[in-house]
Fold these 4 entries.
Entry 1:
Amino acid sequence: MPKTKIIAAVDLHHRDWDSCVVKEAIMLAQSHDAEVELVFVIPDQQNSYVQEYIPADMRDRVEIDARRDLEAYGAQFDWGDIDHSTEILRGVVYETLIEHADEQSARFIVIGANKPSVKDLFIGPNAARVARYASCCVLVVRPE
């Protein structure tokens, strides 16, 4: 029987904030005998006018750098005996996280949320969209 999977969605641009996401995912994994996958989604403006002008080698370089940075970020935490891995994805953040969690049959998504602002009333943050539409449990963590 495969282990329960927990997706810990982190933003490499907010590593300090998202350390609480990883710590919560580790605690959740300990209590559920689960494995954790650290996931970073590179935002992809697929329908953006600018997208066609970005060279393919630059897109590849961004992914290589993100993978290296995510692995280094993950190495900073005390995992104990928790199995863990990293995954770099590309796409619309909330849609990509939800699709990936479904593909992985994840039981939980752990995601961070900063303090809501007025703009969030009109354009919902990724955490709110993931919580609203995911088919698995979602733990929204506030920064420490």
Entry 2:
Amino acid sequence: MDLQTDYFRAEDEAAVRKVMASGTRPAAEAFESVRARGIDPTVVLPRLVAALREESDAAQAPVQTPDLAPAPTPGPAPVKDGPDRSVWPTGLEPWHQEGPGAAVDFEDPWMTGPWVVELPDETRDALAGIQRKRLPRLTSQWARTEEVKNVERIELMKLIHQLGVLARRAKQDGQHLYCALTA
């Protein structure tokens, strides 16, 4: 399945649910968004955040002098494996342990989408810290990820920059980041 992924910012999940429930337009059109085809929020985006944290840690490494022992440097902070919670569709997932236990309805919105997940604010804040001068090195690090190996470097760099701008605006406005996934 080839998923279309759109990252967007919104005030809260109530605003997202209102747009999704209306069905008049996709969340990516209702909110400021970045289209990121195939950059899913559970595997690929956390790898970008890990690369960003490694880059940030390297930039903050202490300067070593010959007469001083090198100070220990902490490793990159752990990255959460994907989003905190699902925002859309609402209700109990058909595979949930408290579900009805009946056969799966393949017309159920949980099976057909679209789906929207809220990203952790830690992810938003990490992306908001992207600095333009570090884009080439960050792009090189992320490009080693299997899922983006075949994407042109310039496209990856533009995407990283766009995600950083989106995250900065969300953070400045006290908003959260979301990802809409459409089959």
Entry 3:
Amino acid sequence: MNRLHASPSRDERGAGLVALPWAVLAYLTFLTLAVQAAVYFYSTSVLTAVGHDATRRAAFGGGSPAAIADAERWLRSSIGAAVDIELLRWSTTTETVALELAARPPTVLFDASALVGLQHIERRFEVRRELARFAG
């Protein structure tokens, strides 16, 4: 008579109880790192889009201090409190308006971004000024 399923020997009983917590810990660690990476890439995308739009707004206003202040106010309200802006520097020339932006993305459970090097976002935007020309 052949046995299809052999019963585990006595020395293997309980081995799953030792390995399971380590497997769950490894799974949750990798899941946290994956979620942190997704949050970083989403924050980078949002900062890039909002930074470019704010620079366009300032350039459309002619690069005046009032237009820059309005664009900066719009940028801060669009980003919200989740992203910590560390640097926001405007510069203007006769033809362009530029913005340097540095920020820290939000963290998920703990600061796992330092483990994978995703803790800082830096962007620079430069847009030509919009000057109205009238035919006449």
Entry 4:
Amino acid sequence: MTHSDLLRTTVTVPADCDLTVRFWVRTITTETSRGDYLNVGLAVTGIPPKTRFSLAFDGGAQWRQYSMSTGTATTERTATASFLASETAGNGVTAFDVDDVTFTLS
């Protein structure tokens, strides 16, 4: 059975500001074949949404830090950060732990 979990939040980015999103991820799994992923995206007003990170089930049990940013613009925008964990009907289970998500304007 396939299972997915989605965590998403939207924030306002003022004009002439850059939003940086930082987060930590670790993966705990009993899987032996590919198929479980954590896709992390950042969608910004006026820019087509895209996946910034596609982390596979075999990413490792150690915590790793990642970051992504919007870049600056002359107008106010909205930015949506999303974390989509997908688990397939494989032969094990996978947990993607996401921690210490921070949003910083500069």
